Structure formats: C-alpha cells, structure tokens
Amino acid sequence: MKINMLFSNKNYCCASGYLLFFFGAWSLWWSFYAIWLKTKIGLTGEELGLLYSVNQFFSMIFMIGYGILQDKLGVKKRLIWLMGIILILSGPFLIYIYEPLLSTHFMAGMFLGAIFFGLGFLAGCGLIESFVEKLSRMFSFEFGTARLWGSVGYAVGTFVGGIFFSINPHINFWCVSALGLCFLLINIISPSSTSSATTQQSNDVNFHDFMTIFKDKQFWLFVLFVVGTWSFYNIYDQQMFPVFYAGLFDNPDVGSRVYGYLNSFQVILEGAGMALVPFLINRIGPKYSLILGGVIMTCRILGSALFTDVYVISFIKMLHAIEVPLFVLSVFKFSIANFDKRLSSTIYLVGFNIAGSLGIILLSLPIGRLFDKVGYHSIFFIISSAVAAMVLLGLLTLSKKRQPSAPPLPVEGA
C-alpha cells in the first residue's frame, strides 16, 4: 500500500527519475575513470593525483555557488536545466576535446576538464541530491526511497559500462549523452516548479543566515570529520581501488570487466541500503550513524591492505554498499538536526561535498607520490589509520542532537 502511495506521488517519481538518469550517466564514465586515465591515457600516479586535485578544486568553487543559489531557489529547476545540458554535452567533450588534450597537452586538458566536470558531475551530484532532499520534505516522501533509484542507475550504468569499456570507452561516453536526454525529459514533465506548494514556499534566506552556519563550532567539527573520513576514503575508492582490483587479474581488461560486474552488484545492494538505512539512523541517531559509517570505511581500507585474494577483496568491496547509504543519509539528518534546514543545500554542498573535495585537493598529490614509492598495501595501511583516528575524534566531539533545529524567528521590522 505504501509503495503504491509512493508511485502515485508524481513528485516522487520525477525526483527518482532525476537520480536514476544522473547517476546512471555518471557511472558510465566515472566508475572507469581511473582505469581509463592509467591504462588508456597512460598517466602516472602523481599525474593522476594532480588531476583529481584540480578536478576537486574547481568542483568546490561551483558547489559554493550551487548551494547558495539552490537555497534561494528552493525547488525551482533553473540549475537542474543546466545539469541536463552538461550531461548531453559530456560524450562529445570526452571524446573530441578531453582525451586528445590529455594525451598532447596535459595541463590544458586537465584544467578544461576540471571546469567541465566540476560544473557538471562533481558539483552537480550534490546539487541534485540536495534538490531532491528539498522535494522530499516538501512533498512528503523519504529521501532515501528516492535516492535508492540513484543507486539503481549507478549499478546498471556500471554493469553495462564494464562491457562497453572493454570494447571501446567511447561507447560509454556516447551513452552518457543519451541518458542526458532522458534527464532533460524528466525535467520537462516534472510538476515541481509550477506546483502551489512551490509558490507558497518562503526562501527569504539572507547573508546573515548563511554566516550563522560558519560561526557554529559544531559545523567546523562536522567539516573536520568529513575531511578525515570521507576524503581519505574517496581517494582510496576512486583513485586506487579500481586499478588495484584490476591488477589482481592476469589480464587487466578482464579485471576491468569483472570490476564493472562487481560494482554493479555492490550498487544494487547500496540501493537497498538507501531504503532500509533510514530506520537504523532514526534508531541510533545521526551522530552514531556517522561513526558507524567511519568504522566500516576503516575496515574496508584495512582489509585491502591485509588481503590479496580476489574473492576476499571482492567481498570487502561489498562493505561500500552499507557505508555509502549510512554516511550520506546521516549527513542530511545530522545537518537538519543541528542547523537551519532552509540552508540544507548549502550545508550539504559546503559542509559535506566541499569539505570532502578540499580534503581530496590537499591529500591526493602527496598520497599519489607516496603510493609511487611504497605501493598499494602500505598506502592502504596509512589511509586506514588516518580514518580510524578521525572516527575516534568524531566520537568525542560531534553533537548527539536528533531533532531538527527550529527555524529562526522573524525579526520585527526587518
């Protein structure tokens, strides 16, 4: 009955469609990005770390603008149109501009790609998620039940992408553009921008409201926790693990294909987690859910350092399916419980995504250099130790609040 009620909610269906097609398009190239850069383009570990750092730097700049603008727009779709256009242009950009420039003029390709991907996928991911989270509160559905469709899209994209990538990566890139058309179609039929609920919503946030967040000590403790856990974990998961896993096979092409299958299965489990994890978070609270997510991160990274058997490593990767829903959904609930919920996009994009990006900017290059010297297993030990230390600090400092903060009362005469 509840499932029927969900699918009778057109706003829920459109919100799910946004996430399905965005994450599907993203996974078609992002899941194989590090493998493509290392094996097809031929980048070194240091170049890969530098490229990721520059990507994250530009995405951080765009996230600030996206967060502020979307909090002022509420659930209006102006920025969502921009995302659709970028998705459609991704295929031609990757094939005809980005790949040739990286091979012949690395610095030019790196900076141009950082602007394009920062404006689109890397900053757009948080924008789409925070936009859907606003829709979920306005139109009465659980964010996790919509976010699971993002995981489904990512799983299908990775599964199909693994097959296409072993044939020709350009097939993946054209499929990204095709899904961009589907994304724009969802935006055309979505009713949110013209609904009465939207026009009645007050988005009179001002500069003082935004500055209040940055004066809050708990916000900076939250940011520190994100940098020390999520940033390290993403360097491990995005820059190192795909190549590490493919290297466990005698034929790297076979490894890339198996990785695609494994990633698809993991993301399917992740989607189920998106629907189920909110019950756990509501029971133990946002703080302890974040701590539990950090513990799972540590276990996965440490497991990669301790084992070399492909079956054991494959099993360890499945921990990602628990950790991502737990961490991402806890971030939203922690933000709403501790800060002004009208600023949810800014808090999510700045406090979570930008903090994570800043950590990647600062850490990718030195970790890449260290990796070139010590190899996978030693660097995995180092990363897991750093994450474990930050989990302990978060346990001691993060707020235990569970209930949303009351919005500030209007000032008379203002």
Automatic annotation (TrEMBL):
Q: Where are the transmembrane segments?
A: 12-36, 48-67, 79-98, 104-128, 148-165, 171-189, 219-236, 258-281, 288-307, 313-334, 346-367, 379-398
Membrane topology reported for the UniProt record: Multi-pass membrane protein
**Cellular-component GO terms for this entry:** plasma membrane
Q: Signal sequence span per UniProt?
A: none
Q: Which UniProt keywords apply?
A: Cell inner membrane, Cell membrane, Membrane, Transmembrane, Transmembrane helix, Transport
The UniProt entry lists the main location of this chain as membrane
Protein name, UniProt field: MFS transporter
- Highest classification ranks of the organism: Bacteria, Pseudomonadati, Pseudomonadota, Gammaproteobacteria, Enterobacterales
